[in-house]
Amino acid sequence: MREVLEQIGELMAIAARTAPKSGGTDFVHVHVVKGDDVQKIGEGMIRYGEEKNIPGFIRDGKNLVASEVLVLIGIKDAAVMNLNCGACGLDTCQELQPIEKNEFKGPQCMFRLLDLGIALGSAVKTASLLNVDNRIMYRVGALARKMGYTQDDVVMGIPLSAQGKNIYFDRKG
Asked: Cα 114 to chain center, whole Å?
């Protein structure tokens, strides 16, 4: 089953890679995590949740430990669109200088975050079409980044599972 889920992870990566991008420029990165690394990130999430007393990290970490494959999708060094739209909270795009914050580096240009969202949607659509259980999880991306599995400025994780019941819904905690 793991080999099939790994192939589906690669198909999800293609879907994210080919998703439309604002202004025709691509700052989206995709990485398919396989094998023991999936469990290592999940265990790291559980430890982090226990240390910081954040139950959501523990719950999501347990979900990840029970998963076979993880797809990470993020953006790195994303140039602003120079529209001065103000959606980032600043008056001009020239003011936008992302800095390390809590889990991610921000603020980010809203159009680049939309690109990330479209790539995520394209990836989970692919998994859904193939009847693979999945869920977009910010906490997974945050800990994968913290643990050095990605250098993206903002990243989300999509764990994959094929069990008798979707493990990512009807969760407690």
From this structure: 13
